[in-house]
TrEMBL record:
Keywords: Cuticle, Signal
Keyword Repressor listed: no
Alphabetized InterPro entries for the sequence: CHIT_BIND_RR_consensus, Cuticle_Struct_Prot, Insect_cuticle
Protein's name in the database: Pupal cuticle protein 27-like
Any one Pfam family match given in the protein's UniProt record, by short name: Chitin_bind_4
GO molecular function: structural constituent of chitin-based larval cuticle
Region ranges (Disordered): 20-60, 158-201
Bias (Polar residues) ranges: 20-38, 192-201
Signal peptide start-end: 1-15
Keyword match Oxidoreductase: no
A Gene Ontology term for the protein's cellular component: chitin-based extracellular matrix
Length: 201
């Protein structure tokens, strides 16, 4: 019996020390003792008067208040055996649309950035992958001339039936080993090649 009473007292004391299960993101509610706020988010550190103190790092984006209460202004959706089409627009400036089938689709979307500018993307998606286009997207640098020349040479070789498998083929390049006729100024038989030991003369 003493064991049960002791165990109950320990359990109650331990449970009283557990943190609250309520979590509010930084600066989103009162700083009562029942709410958890990450370090430097709930006290008056540095003499600040706000809930976050002098180290306030809460999310304060310009569109935050508008986005919190955004509503869907229009939404359309069609799906049938020939493909799909959808579009929607929200009150905070997000617009999107896409149409296509199982093999190919195209569409676009736009949103208002934190800087107040509207960012638009148009895209196609299919066998070639997802291909977006937008004025704000980074552009790859031009391909160097040496790479373009090598790609052109490869295409010409393949058209002529020449394929490079990555292996060395001296008979194709015209190079001959010692001991083969036509090597250097020596005559045939000037050396022998063994794959394990190399050349012997």
């Amino acid at each position: 019996m003493k064991f049960i009473v002791s165990f109950t007292i320990i359990a109650v004391a331990t449970a009283a020390k557990l943190p609250s299960s309520n979590y509010l993101p930084p600066n989103q509610g009162s700083s009562s003792s029942n709410s958890y706020l990450p370090p430097n988010q709930g006290g008056n550190i540095g003499g600040g008067s706000s809930a976050g103190g002098a180290y306030d790092t809460g999310n304060r984006r310009p569109q935050q208040e508008i986005e919190k209460n955004a509503v869907i202004l229009q939404q359309n959706q069609e799906i049938d055996e020939n493909g799909f089409r959808y579009s929607y627009e929200t009150s905070n400036g997000i617009r999107a649309e896409e149409a296509g089938d199982a093999s190919q689709s195209q569409g676009g979307f736009a949103y208002k950035g934190d800087d107040g500018n509207v960012y638009s993307i148009t895209f196609t998606a299919g066998e070639g992958g997802f291909r977006p286009q937008g004025a704000h997207l980074p552009v790859a640098p031009p391909t160097p001339e040496a790479i373009l020349a090598a790609l052109d040479r490869n295409a010409k070789d393949e058209a002529a039936g020449i394929f490079d498998d990555g292996q060395y083929h001296p008979e194709q390049s015209g190079n001959r080993r010692p001991g083969q006729s036509g090597y250097g100024s020596g005559s045939s038989g000037s050396g022998n090649f063994n794959a394990n030991t190399g050349y012997t003369y």
